[in-house]
Amino acid sequence: MIISSDDFTLQVLDKPKVITDNDLQKLSEQEREAFGGFSNEKKKIEFALSRLMFRDLLGNNYSEIQYESCGKPTMADFSISLSHSRSYVTVIYSKYKVAIDIEEYRQQILKITSKFVRDDEKSIFTSLEDLTVLWSAKETMFKLTNASQNLLDFCITRISDDTLEGRVIIDGKTSNITNLSYIRNDNFSLVWACEKNERL
């Protein structure tokens, strides 16, 4: 699945069981070295697939992904974000600041609601699907702002068919986030943000 606009492009792919030798040859020598350094097969696949996806989407505009000290991925000339779940990998890029998160529906999320659901959200987000959207939204807001690692500092104030509005509350100060979009299907919730007032 690809979603594209004048402002951003995102893609979601099923995670393959293995990365083929043919796929590995599309990576740079440095990327192949990093790939070989992972002992966990899942991490290997996520690492390689995200880079293959960006390479496919960006063509000659692709440059290797670097990481900031906080762990945020960066790329020359573009804002990027990536996320993975058990079965999917998703990436997004833009000339504007972007963030993305994908979550599959899992019953375990019902056991950790105290970590991310605020009292003023409990009546809005009740089903497993709604709570998964909420979790995805807060992860996206965290990636977008790096304002706090406590997801209870993020609040979703409005939800419609395909957009969300929220705010970050840190030390009594509030910052609004009005550019969250989402889709959900039978398998996952996908939330992304494109901060159009922050052009690279």
Could you explain the architecture of this structure?
- It is a single chain.
- The protein is globular.
- Helix 2 packs antiparallel against helix 3.
- The strands form 3 sheets. Strands 7-11-10-9-8 form a 5-stranded antiparallel beta sheet, covered by helices on one side. A 4-stranded antiparallel beta sheet has the order 1-2-6-5, with helices on one face. Strands 3-4 form a two-stranded antiparallel sheet.
- It has helices at residues 21-24, 29-37, 41-58, 128-145; strands at 2-4, 8-14, 66-67, 73-74, 79-84, 88-94, 96-104, 154-159, 163-170, 173-184, 188-199.
- 24% of the residues lie in helices and 37% in strands.
- With 200 residues, it is α+β, with helices and mostly antiparallel strands.
- It contains 4 helices and 11 strands.
- Strand 5 and strand 6 form a beta hairpin.
Task: List the main descriptive attributes of the protein structure presented here.
11 strands, four-stranded antiparallel β-sheet, globular, 4 helices, 200 residues, five-stranded antiparallel β-sheet, 24% helix, alpha+beta
